[in-house]
Structures are given as C-alpha cells and as structure tokens.
TrEMBL record:
Lineage top rank: taxon: Bacteria
Source organism of this protein record: Alkalihalophilus pseudofirmus (strain ATCC BAA-2126 / JCM 17055 / OF4) (Bacillus pseudofirmus)
UniProt KW keywords: Membrane, Transmembrane, Transmembrane helix
Residues that span the membrane, as ranges: 7-25, 31-49, 56-74, 80-103, 168-186, 201-222, 248-269, 275-295, 316-335, 355-383, 395-417, 437-455
Protein name: Citrate transporter-like domain-containing protein
Length: 456
C-alpha cells in the first residue's frame, strides 16, 4: 500500500462514514448509492493492509456472497447497496478511541493501576487485585486496558518463574476483560445484539451485570485458591508504597458517574429521535468526551492524546473494514436466497426446546472461534438466523447468549486479537492460553445460557 495513503486512511474512512451518518438523517437514496460505490474502493484499499486471517475471512464472505448474489438473479447496478448495512459499526469503531483518550487524559488508568503495584504477600491476593483493576479499566477503555494491565504485571512479576507468570497473566487479564465488557455500552458485541434483537439496552443491563458479577466472583474464588500457595516477589521492592483507597475510590466513583450520564444521554437521544443503539452511542461519544474534558479542565491533554490515538487507530482499521464490508455483502446476499432458511432449519427444528437453541448458539461461537472466525462475523450470521424465532423465544434470552457466547471467546480464540496480544506480550503459545481458559469460557457461556433460559 502507498505510504502516503496508509498514513491518511483516517481521512478516507472519516469522509465516507460522515456521509453515511449525515444521510441517516437526510434519507437521500442517491447519496446512499454513492456511499455504496465508495465502500467498494474502501474495501479494496483496506484489503491491502489487512492481516492474513482477515483477508481470508473477507475473501470467503465476498466469494460466497457473490455466488448467492448471482444465484438470486439480482441486477449488477444494485451491488453497491449491499455493502452499506454495517457502516454504523465502522462509524462506532472510529469514534471509540476518543472515549478511551478521555479516561487516559484524566489519569484514571494510572490511579487505578496503583492497585497492582502495591505490595501483596502471595499471588492469590494479586490475582484478585489485578483482575479487579483490569475489570474496572476494561469497562471504560476496552482493549487498551488489557495491554496496560499486562505490561504492569510483566514488570512486577519479572522475578517469577515463566510458567507461573504466563499462566497467571493469561488467566487474570483475559478473564477480567471478557466479563467486564458484557455490560459495557462501548462493546460492539453488546451494541450489535441490542439492535439485532430489538430489546432495550436498559432491559439487558441488570441481567448482564448479574452474569458478569457471578462469573467474576467464581473466577476470583478459583484464582485466589489456585495461586494462594505461590509467594509473590516483586521485581522492584517498594517498602513505602501504600494504596490510597480514598483517592482510588473517588476516581472509580467519577468513572461510574460519567458512564451513568453517558448512558442516560444515549438512551434519551435514541428514544427522542428513534435511532438504533449503535448510532446513538456513535453520535454521543465525541461531544460527551469533549464536555467531560472541559469539566475536568483536561482539554489540552485530551486533545493531545485523543488526536494521536484516533489517527493511529483509524489508520489501522483495515481488518475491521474488510470484515464488516464483506460481511455486509454476504449477509445482504444471503437474505435474498433460500439458503438462509436452510441454515435456520436446525434452530427451527429445536423451537420446542429453547434450551437446545441457546446451547447451539454457544457451541457455534466456540467452534467458529477455534477455526479463526471473528465473533463479530458469527454474531452477524446468527442474528439473521435467529430472526424468525423471536415469535416463539424471548429475544432477550437469545441476546444474553449472543453477548456472553461472543465475549467468552475472547479468552480462548487462538486467532483472536486478545489471545494473540497476550501471546505476543508473554511470548507463549496461543493454544496453551486457549487450553488454560477453556473451562472459564464454558463457565461464562454456561452462566449466560442459564440466565437466558430462566428469562424464557
């Protein structure tokens, strides 16, 4: 890819996505068609910079989608219109770095990470503490928190044996990450599920928090027992280091207040203008982040961190652009064929036994994650497959399983970004990480399925 173009992809992506958002309110069919035409070179340019896994996934979706498009006998001029359905997801991902940046500008991450640097006597206590820290940060800054937590632990555990260190880090950070995001409005799996099932985010929220709490408590109990016998020896001894619980508690309280305000604005805007959840969150993130920076008097720091972070993240969105645009073409073409009905048959056949359907969803996620299919792609297909069943099964039950099943794969997907990042940071085999976390993934999915079943 041309170096100049690679450095300015953020301009290309932003112009097209801004056009899409503006046209959501304008409702112009010619503009919508132009956006569809622009999506094709957008996909081709991104394909050049995407990783091998996403190129393969994108190629499969485009190839199969093309076959179904031709089979359906659709006219050639309509092709651009079949690439636009996932544009809201790309717009959502484009503005997400600004929310991460305001948390960093307010130095919330530094204060909360002090919890992991304070002295503890054994790894059992450190497990709970590092899990809580990762959980708190992931709720607000998503993937960035995983990297930060792992860096701190690698530094603090430098003197520990590699086998223990690898096991500890790959379990405590990935598991906390997975359970923290199941109720976060900034998590794309949650946003996709809310829009796919048509159930309000606020209706999901208490059940998602309950699921998150149950799984987290079980993991803390297991982790503290598993590592209690291993004494902790910090790489650098700090005899005077103490935690300031009042300051850290106040930082967490301010984050909770900010998130509550954010949710209220998102829900109010969505209800007032009849917008879907993904678009509502996308529209609120940027102005909310700026207002928050003003209130904290951190505007200069926010702009410095935010602009650099946003440019970097947007310039490296090729994987998601390839995945979402090819998925849009595949899903739209699939809807025009009788093949969707064939895929739906096993689920429709089990409509008399809803528990089997919920277990099928969980099993599909795990199977797809093992062969490298991103959970976003899986949820995109499952959302289409499950539509006819909402008349006989509570869509909230399906939604609970769609969310928890997708996020459980964050701990075991050997080709997923979270496991790959952990593998690179700790220099261990990704399949070893998968093996260690598989019982947790089954537990997480099982609790989500149980709650979903009880909601039937």
């Amino acid at each position: 890819m041309n170096h100049f173009l690679k450095q300015h992809l953020y301009v290309v992506y932003s112009v097209i996505l801004l056009m899409y958002i503006a046209n959501t309110f304008i409702g112009s069919e010619p503009i919508h068609y132009v956006i569809g035409i622009l999506a094709i070179p957008m996909l081709l340019i991104s394909f050049l910079g995407a990783s091998k896994l996403f190129r393969i996934l994108g190629s499969i979706f485009i190839t199969v989608g093309t076959g179904m498009y031709i089979y359906s006998g659709l006219p050639l001029y309509q092709v651009p219109l079949y690439f636009t359905s996932t544009m809201p997801l790309l717009a959502f991902l484009t503005v997400l770095p600004w929310m991460n940046s305001i948390v960093r500008a307010g130095r919330f991450d530094r204060r909360i990470n002090e919890l992991m640097k304070a002295n503890v006597s054994d790894l059992g206590k450190l497990y709970v503490r590092s899990s809580f820290t990762t959980y708190t940060l992931c709720s607000f800054i998503n993937l960035s928190a995983l990297s930060i937590s792992q860096e701190v632990l690698l530094e603090n555990m430098a003197k520990m044996k590699k086998k223990i260190k690898d096991s500890f880090i790959s379990q405590t950070t990935l598991r906390a990450f997975a359970v923290a995001l199941c109720w976060s409005p900034m998590e794309i799996m949650v946003a996709m599920t809310v829009d796919a099932t048509g159930v309000s985010y606020l209706a999901y929220l208490p059940w998602l928090i309950l699921c998150s709490f149950i799984v987290l408590m079980v993991d803390w109990l297991w982790g503290s027992r598993r590592f209690k016998s291993v004494p902790y020896e910090a790489a650098v001894y700090h005899p005077e280091r103490t935690i300031e619980p009042g300051i850290i508690a106040w930082k967490i309280t301010k984050l909770v207040i900010a998130l509550t305000a954010f949710l209220l604005i998102v829900v109010t805007l969505g209800n007032a203008y009849n917008l879907n959840f993904i678009l509502s969150v996308t529209l609120v993130i940027l102005p909310f982040s700026f207002c928050w920076a003003l209130v904290m008097n951190r505007m200069r720091s926010f702009l410095a961190i935010g602009w650099g972070t946003w440019k970097f993240r947007t310039n490296h969105m090729q994987n998601f652009v390839v995945l979402f645009l090819s998925l849009a073409f595949f899903s739209s073409s699939l809807n025009e064929t009788p093949f969707l009905g064939m895929i739906q048959q096993p689920f429709l056949a089990a409509s008399e036994t809803p528990l089997v359907i919920l277990l099928l969803i969980q099993g599909t996620y795990l199977l797809m994650s093992m062969i490298g299919v991103h959970p976003v792609a899986t949820i995109g297909i499952l959302a289409e497959v499950m539509q006819p069943l909402y008349s006989v099964i509570n869509p909230m039950s399906v939604g609970m399983v769609l969310i928890t099943g997708a996020l459980a794969t964050a701990t075991v997907g050997a080709y997923g970004i979270t496991v790959t990042m952990t593998s690179m940071n700790t220099m261990q085999n990704p399949y070893r990480i998968t093996l260690r976390n598989m019982p947790f993934a089954i537990l997480y999915g099982g609790v989500g399925t149980l709650i979903g079943y009880l909601l039937l």
